[in-house]
Beta-galactosidase
Amino acid sequence: MTDRTLGTCYYPEHWPEKIWSEDAHRMAEAGLTWVRIGEFAWSRLEPEPGKLEFDWLDRAIGVLADHGLKIILGTPTATPPRWMLDKHPDMLAFDAEGRPRGFGSRRHYCFSHQGYLTECRRITRLLGERYGRDDRIAAWQTDNEYGCHDTTISYSDAARRAFQDWCAQRYQSPQALNRAWGNVFWSMDYDSFDQIGLPNLTVTEVNPAHALAFRRFSSDQVVLFNRAQTEILRDLTDAPLIHNYMGVVLDFDHFHVGADLDVASWDSYPLGFLMDRTPASDAEKAMFLRQGHPDLQAFHHDLYRAVGRGRLWVMEQQPGPVNWAPHNPAPLPGMARLWAWEAFAHGAETVCYFRWRQAPMAQEQYHAGLLRPDSAPAPALAEARQVADEIAAMPDAETAAADVALIFDYASVWAWEVQPQGQDFSYFGLVFAVYKALRGLGLDIDILPPDADPSGYKLVLAPGLATVPEGLTDQITGTALFGPRSGAKTPEMSIPDGLPPGLPGLDARVAYVETLPQGADRPLARGGTFRTWVEEIEGDTEVLETRSDGAPALLRAGNLHYLAGWPDDAAMTRILRDLCHAAGLSTETLPEGLRSRRTPTHRFWFNYGPAPVEVAGQTLPPAGVTWETL
Amino acid sequence: MTDRTLGTCYYPEHWPEKIWSEDAHRMAEAGLTWVRIGEFAWSRLEPEPGKLEFDWLDRAIGVLADHGLKIILGTPTATPPRWMLDKHPDMLAFDAEGRPRGFGSRRHYCFSHQGYLTECRRITRLLGERYGRDDRIAAWQTDNEYGCHDTTISYSDAARRAFQDWCAQRYQSPQALNRAWGNVFWSMDYDSFDQIGLPNLTVTEVNPAHALAFRRFSSDQVVLFNRAQTEILRDLTDAPLIHNYMGVVLDFDHFHVGADLDVASWDSYPLGFLMDRTPASDAEKAMFLRQGHPDLQAFHHDLYRAVGRGRLWVMEQQPGPVNWAPHNPAPLPGMARLWAWEAFAHGAETVCYFRWRQAPMAQEQYHAGLLRPDSAPAPALAEARQVADEIAAMPDAETAAADVALIFDYASVWAWEVQPQGQDFSYFGLVFAVYKALRGLGLDIDILPPDADPSGYKLVLAPGLATVPEGLTDQITGTALFGPRSGAKTPEMSIPDGLPPGLPGLDARVAYVETLPQGADRPLARGGTFRTWVEEIEGDTEVLETRSDGAPALLRAGNLHYLAGWPDDAAMTRILRDLCHAAGLSTETLPEGLRSRRTPTHRFWFNYGPAPVEVAGQTLPPAGVTWETL
Amino acid sequence: MTDRTLGTCYYPEHWPEKIWSEDAHRMAEAGLTWVRIGEFAWSRLEPEPGKLEFDWLDRAIGVLADHGLKIILGTPTATPPRWMLDKHPDMLAFDAEGRPRGFGSRRHYCFSHQGYLTECRRITRLLGERYGRDDRIAAWQTDNEYGCHDTTISYSDAARRAFQDWCAQRYQSPQALNRAWGNVFWSMDYDSFDQIGLPNLTVTEVNPAHALAFRRFSSDQVVLFNRAQTEILRDLTDAPLIHNYMGVVLDFDHFHVGADLDVASWDSYPLGFLMDRTPASDAEKAMFLRQGHPDLQAFHHDLYRAVGRGRLWVMEQQPGPVNWAPHNPAPLPGMARLWAWEAFAHGAETVCYFRWRQAPMAQEQYHAGLLRPDSAPAPALAEARQVADEIAAMPDAETAAADVALIFDYASVWAWEVQPQGQDFSYFGLVFAVYKALRGLGLDIDILPPDADPSGYKLVLAPGLATVPEGLTDQITGTALFGPRSGAKTPEMSIPDGLPPGLPGLDARVAYVETLPQGADRPLARGGTFRTWVEEIEGDTEVLETRSDGAPALLRAGNLHYLAGWPDDAAMTRILRDLCHAAGLSTETLPEGLRSRRTPTHRFWFNYGPAPVEVAGQTLPPAGVTWETL
Ligand SMILES: [Zn+2]
Ligand SMILES: [Zn+2]
Ligand SMILES: [Zn+2]
């Protein structure tokens, strides 16, 4: 069994060599096990093309390892040096407006550029050859935060040519592509693959089939880019290979990238994410300003536990204020501990705080670390030390099996971004609304990719799943909930023959859909409303619940349920509670902000709320975490 | 006398040939008379340059005509095939940001590109030669929705060169142009016409005379593009020539385009328009969410009846939810009937529902049809059938002469877009506010171009008419209302000598104008306010009404009135009611959402409101339409 | 001692020569002393390259001077003629999106373009040679409103090359630049200066040191551009050299430009500025809609008095509605007088109304003048005449020394624009909030550049001063207030060693900062809140005031104070009042909208508010100005 461990992210190249040893000493003293290095250091590893300077890295590794720290070594491919642009002037990604995304920050490359890919293979091989069998290097990280800063998608020439090839592979003939996409619609037929452009800068909306194909292609390019590194490292090391996914970056399929890796790690910035990427109301944003949204971290832990096929890390954990959100408050005292324990409760093996010391220069000067720029301890250091002591007393990294499975599908993210039909419709928002309601009922959840086997789960939910894989409903042994908008598309982004949702055994068809602006919710007979998205259903299936106007709202055929709209929070909770009871699951009603997660041995409690709550026989203060033995 | 008829829009190229016959059979069964085809089919009519495939079209025409349907054949020039771009790589329009507007949707051409214009002439001639004398083709449509997706204006090189020629024609010498535009102002003088650029991407605002000239030019290019097709078709067919104008597309002069055509048709999407292009309050948008704005359709009917010199069609009628607005609710049951009857009441000969069957592929998958994608009837089919029965009993397409004339001038749209002076000022918004108030008073309205003869009307209104044509006031035999902002500009976009409005017989000058933000309305002595736009008037004319601060608000000289600001809705209604009474017109006060229109034989009533209303001795439910014999 | 005088801005080239004499006559009659001409006339002075036509200017000067008017002659370099583009096609500035900012309005040049700079030297020399010793030309204006329309910053190739040279001069080696900027951070190291790009269109945020260097460079280019003209004119004339700065244009260092000039003048458009560039609440914007913000003009007078080293003019004074703000109301009657008197009270020598006559053509048709387009008097003419009479009775342009000094630093504007950390943080907003509170306390204020000697002032304030100059605190003899965010950066935009603020004698360090969204203010123990920006302080300095959570809010060491957050208006006033009392300054509490300023002989009162106020023994109406003898 793996031990729970802590770590941090360190940049020896940023600091005078004379303080490395003191830093390492203090890391060990703080109870840290891991230190990640190297992922932005290409200009110092190879200051000129082919002129390699690894000796400083050797010395840094030595100092760190001498203090008992295990090293995660990053490939530096997220930050190509300036000279790379001279070698490969066309390596940049292009934005949707047709402009190159230039040098001067990071992630300035197009995933489709073959010249840059070759350079990445080269530096990866050099690092692998030098450090692959060095047992001080206990793990490897590929690149850094694929897709961060909207970098998955590029409209470069390299991307266009690669997309044409991708289309040729997928469709084999322009005529087949024309049929698949329905290009006859507006005389959009192609005669050859090299006529196909990227779906930007068109007069009005592009064919959604074209757009979705491009999104699939763009995701595949990330998979291939990552695989180019893992294929090399696999031959050269036995250490686990990891990527650090960025929170709420959904432009590529993390399950597909993760299939080539050993551990899924993610970068958790609860306060920044609350501000800039969480589907939350203004009231929630005010209430959780200094805690983060109570469900966003848990969602990602559950998601990446699936991506990592059970192996989950947090590679970067926010320790204090960050620099990049619209506003950047400090976490409540205790949150740096709470977030770590929440990760462990969800099965994480390791939590690394980002970064060791706040940098006084360059872009992230206002990003807190465990140390301040003057090397004094920042508030999070003591919290990390406390967690280190606590995990020493409860070392086993374990995951409890959940009764509830929630399907999350990256292709559905893209499908509904391409074609929201109403400007507020968001697949992530819908799935997150379901997840939030389930958590408020006190449940543990496993997140599954759409091609996983859901058998064994008492409750399986697949809201908004654009295309329902053949055979999925057969595999479900428990109660299932599909809809709204599940099964709404063929894999080529058309409306299926026979109309959605096309679920075996469920005699129901979506006659038409409506999207609604705020304030025009459609009331439900049993309370609450459908908001944003409403479907008109016909068919002979049992109706469990109706709208106030009598139209079907919730349908059933055996264990299979279909929800014909997006319920508001109150209705979502009611509907899911009933469904849980039907599935034989007991539920609770947790106070707002209180959340829990069970391991095989304990139930953990986390108070994200602004007020103390009574739980587990005690008063849990804001930012408090506690646990009960099961 | 022409009969009222229904029709639909059909795309045989989208469907297997084997279902054409069944489709045609069902169209006839639904009571439809017309079917429009062909307007997006260029890639199937000419799959390679010069390789013509008209046989499928022959067969489609045959099947449809065999079921008694009359065919409207569209020229396919709104959707040039992909190979056209290889022949004419510079044919694309450019947006104001300087980027080409590429292939992948529709309307991807610049009106000024001579190469593409030649191609359009060629395909039009080919179609005209084949089908012009075929009496199964009972009408022709040129292109599709000119100007839709902001396509009137192009900043391409082709447009720049054509604009230089246009300027040379209009001004004859650079010196004359410099004088006309006042280019001395900021040393903007030109030495030659080829120095003149397009008015985009300048450091700060361009000379409004330059901008207005470019808007005029851009409109003229649409006229010439359309005329290139009508000139060919006139020689080859006797069937009426029609274009389907898109609602609230104001970038070219529809009267000028319409002068080359026989019928003006328009595409009516009440729910989409309410959401994305109607000047309506949030309260109105909420109240009419599933009905559309009660005055927007009527306005367009009255407008296009003028454009068509009495001959009005609705070429595309929304039958259910559409796909393109920010939110897309379903119409209330009954609206598909109401909208059709409202068109007939305003003099329409034909209403075609768009489209026959909802397409499961490409851009408009969520756009309803009369049939669902699974060929089952959509809700609107029964409503269309009801209308078919009703018009069979009341077949005559007739128009009553109105007592009230409202002048609508495209050049004023452009003038005030170029120079709004306050960000909320909108000519269309102002004219629509007048129209709405008149309709609420129970009046019928004729819309006139600024060069029409307004004699005979009891009341003539010309709000915001930038340049008052010489002699217009002499032609008015009834009561007239000008202002605000009427006569404010010379044709070259200067302030006239002697100051606005410069109305013969009215001793009044606009000393200065003010534009006001929301919440800073200027109160009127008799109630209500001026909002958005206020004028300070001097002169010796009779003052009928003042602002609360004593300044003149409404002036009179004989039958000529001038309004010195933009009244809020309440004041607008009061002022217009008084004016009607002065003009000998009786008025009513219709409940919100109830609207009427008279034909020579009937008065029709339409309930756009969310509640039943008592009218014509009955309770008219929401979405209800009824009529009384006059 | 200089006399207070009035003037106007006139464009003889816009009007028929036959009316020049009448215009001049009326100017003199209105009591005007000055007339500014020539600054947009390049195309008429040099209609073709090298073909000079100065005779019309000679005649205009003659007519004006014959009526006793003193002439300010502008160099016409803000409006290069169209032929200049043919000579220097690459002279245009480029915007941050990478697009050239083209011909068709004004200010269409890049400050870094050497070819255009040479042309500007040439035309300046030609004008200087012809008119430099002509004593009818009593002052010179260089160019017009540097930086207006966001023209300071250009992303052209010329700018890039010049920036590379600037970097080479400043840093001497790429390695030194890499160290100064901390480029190691994300492998952003440069090997040579010609690799350095401009900080636009990067993938994510650029290094703030890079961005700040570019802002400094961009400011320096304006200084050099202006100096190219002053160096020539100095040899050719003894008349004072002036530039007319535009209000709230902060992209270049006005102190640096002003060092080469004799007088600082600015262009004052109170109503336009209120709408589009004043940090004011919605309530303030509604209350001062027709007056302008009561502190914005005063702030600029105080600022430019410093820029002009005591010599202040208003070169353009709004007389009525303007054309360029989002909404353009008319000033309350009396404001054209009030604004002029406020300028004089703050030490202005001259106030010129812009423009003499409203132009009926081109961009500024809706911009009021002293005359209407029909040459009738606009409302402001009588107010100007009244001011002329009043200053004849009180002619001496004098400035009283203030007790309070407020430091204003352009580099801090740029630093905090580059790195606001929270989206609401604005240096100008912070300084203006301090200024507004001081003025509400009835105080007079001097604004100082950061390198001025503040000794002798009873109170010195330096909020948000990014880098505190070495020795500044030693020079302060009175009470001082720094913070929030003062001393937060090294000159190279890093966090200083030892942490901010680093004030000698003050044992306080900013452990971390927080930025807060609206509604999440942090309460203060004595009332009010910190908003937007909050600092966590550690150290042993005396704490004068705390937040409600006990954290230090206001610190003191001797006369040196440090404020650890941005107070809301109420707390700001309370804190500054207490500080004034500690500094031996008495304060008042002026009613909202009432403001004052003292000269050596008088105290002037200005009522910006919408209601009458009792002051100086009288009832001062809205837009009223009065004075008491001291
Ligand atoms: Zn040690
Ligand atoms: Zn049949
Ligand atoms: Zn005279």
Observations:
- Chain A has a mean pLDDT of 98.
